[in-house]
Amino acid sequence: MRSRAFGAPSTSIGCRSALGATSSGSTGRVYEAAASCIQRRPARDLYHSALQIEVPEATFVIEQTPVPNLSGEERGVVARGAVGSRLAGRFRTFRYEIRVWRGGHIPDVAEAVDSPRRLSTDEDVARRVLDVVRRVPTPPWGRDELRAGEMWNSNSVIAWVLASGGVDTDSIQPPVGGRAPGWQAGLRVAARNGSP
Question: What per-residue confidence (pLDDT) applies to 23?
Fold first, then answer.
């Protein structure tokens, strides 16, 4: 069982997805070992997603990450949320940020499996995706406060952004034998909010 990246969107004038490493090595393995034991199924590789949007004026990376420092403006931070609980979110160590990073890069894209995957070449779709990111819900990471059936995480954010931006998400699946925890939560919450 590995924790790796897989494809979400990227495009040249459009959107491209790279579903990447879900969680860092041993943490992801421990999580998946526990989850598979509780659910009485074999352990699988875990994947996480990030999005690269290319429009004529720039390339943007959309992702959910830990907060490395308080200089979020240089990374295009558009939202923040707590990790684990809203109370813990008072401390930077327990916060995440959502970025629309102009000129940014996805650190683990070279490790991505089955990606990057082009989701669209339509500039209007790319711009819609860029526009909706600022409205993404920011419940605590790792919890199911939105009652979507699974925890909220980076996969939830990317799935919500794509669905809310009008991208057809039906064909986006993790590689065979893997899973992307939180992906369905993002799709369910987007559907509740009336995504196209």
Answer: 42
Q: β-strand 58-66 against 45-55: which pairing, if any? A: antiparallel
In a domain, residue 164? The reply is yes
pLDDT exceeds cutoff 70 at 91: yes
Which residues 6+ apart lie within 8 Å of 14 measured at CB?
53, 54, 118, 119, 120, 121, 122, 123, 125, 126
- Average of per-residue pLDDT across 117-134: 89
**Which one-letter DSSP state was computed for residue 12?**
S
In a domain, 160, yes or no: yes
Taking each helix axis from N to C end, the angle separating 154-164 and 123-132, rounded to the nearest 10 degrees, works out to: 130
Q: Is residue 195 part of a domain?
A: no
CB-neighbour burial class of residue 144 (10 A; exposed 0-12, middle 13-18, buried 19+): middle
Q: Quick one: pLDDT at residue 25?
A: 57
Is 59 within the bounds of a domain?
Answer: yes
Peptide bond into 42 cis (omega under 30): no
CB of 129 closer than 8 Å to CB of 14:
no
Q: Which of 77-81, 85-89, 115-119, 177-181 has the highest mean pLDDT?
A: 77-81
Please give the residue range of the domain that contains residue 164: 3-188
What does the pLDDT read at residue 144? 94
Number of domains in the chain: 1
List for the chain the helix, strand, coil content (%; round to 5): 30, 30, 40
